[in-house]
Amino acid sequence: MENFMLALNTVAPLFLLMMLGFFLKKIGLLKQELIGPLNKLVFSVFLSTSLFNNIYSTKLEEAWNARAVIFTVTCVLVVFALLWLIIPRIEKDKSKASVMMQSIYRSNIIILGLPIVAELCGAENTGLMSILIAIIVPIYNVLSVFIFGFMDKQRPSIGKTLLDIAKNPLIIGSLLGVIFLALGIKLPYMFEKTISNIASITTPLALIVLGAFFDFKKLSGNVKQLVIALSGRLVIVPLICMSIAIAM
User: Fold this and answer.
1) Straight-line distance from the first to the last Cα atom of the chain, in angstroms, rounded to the nearest whole number
2) Average pLDDT of 207-231?
3) SS3 for 16-66, per residue?
4) Which band of pLDDT confidence, cut at 50, 70 and 90, is reported for residue 60?
5) Other C-beta atoms lying within 10 Å of the C-beta of residue 143
6) How far is CA 234 from CA 26, 41, 173, 241, in A?
7) Do 207 and 14 touch, CB atoms closer than 8 A?
8) CA angle, 212 as apex, 207 and 217 as ends, to 5°?
9) Is this prediction's pTM over 0.85?
């Protein structure tokens, strides 16, 4: 019961913020035309600043863990390979199959994973998670090229994808944090304080915007795909990967 309450108290506030975003949109305080620009602002400025702050404010010798990095990357690649073999046999519609694969192998490590780790371990202990994000997000994007190029037949340009990865604000924020941390560069207090203030409002704002995106009318006709994707992402993958991680 103690573990259940710990999990509930950690996760419930995040979902309540998403419910707030959904409610604000329903009553008209958060207009539909504002959601898109707000989402872009969160992605481009707030999340990247938060990632920079998490890495910048940690200790490199405590944040870096080669075994954790290797394990995480291996899990992503193995899960992706298994999905490549399994999902097309379950879902014949290639456009839906590609979305299902992404729904399962991609984790919401930034908006949900990072604040959960911060709540459980303390904000000062999120350096490893931020470094993992800098490594995992490009891998996610590269794997997306294979999915949409070979399954959905959209065939995005490899060069354009690599350029998009290099321009990704999350990657830039994480890499800058690593550079500042590795070189021991210290910012003046007024900049540190500003960055810290931005980072502190990132998660609530991101979750409110995420909640505003919910549209339950679109569930119709996709229940089977949703059940499979959610079961894979929330039950099967964590059960297998976390069991192996604990055993190791």
Assistant:
1) 26
2) 84
3) HHHHHHHHHHHCCCCCHHHHHHHHHHHHHHHHHHHHHHHHHCCCHHHHCCH
4) low
5) 20
6) 27, 28, 28, 11
7) yes
8) 130
9) no
